[in-house]
Amino acid sequence: MAKLNILEFPDPRLRRVAQPVDVVTDRERKLAADMLETMYSARGIGLAATQVNEGVRLLVLDLSETRDQPRVFINPEIISRTGSQTCEEGCLSVPGIYAEVKRAEEIRVRALGLDGEPFEQDADGLLAVCIQHEIDHLDGKVFVDYLSPLKRRMVEKKLKKQRQREPDAVA
Ligand code: GNR
Ligand code: NI
Fold this sequence. Notes:
binds nickel (II) ion; alpha+beta; five-stranded antiparallel sheet; 7 strands; two-stranded antiparallel sheet
């Protein structure tokens, strides 16, 4: 396994729209393993391939306290959504920034597993938030896109200041 570099906002590569996986092969299994290692090392609860500069529709998650329940979604699609919830979100690509985002409360997701087999899963609460946040990454979106222009400018300023203080911070 290998730890991968995480792109940081406003890197334009975070804006690329990821392409569907055609056939699930060892390449996807290796990428998923490397992404999980990267996510655990950075103490995140999710990671999308876009964030590690891979243009495929693959995301990994682990919301367990014990950090031993990895989940992988390939070509994920939200097939239904109901209600709304507001959650304070963070993002490994926007370090040190937290802001409230409104999203669907309950979703049903269809995806392929690492075995290439399709499955469907219902999600609510933080799991639903995380899946929506990761699918946004695959579509080239970052959570700060939901903030007002003023708040987004404040985020960009804060990130610039942070980077001046620690110019070579590597995750
Ligand atoms: O680690 C993460 N925590 C988090 C908290 C609230 C809402 C969404 C997230 S996802 C984030 C990891 C990440 O950046 N995934 O893309
Ligand atoms: Ni993120």
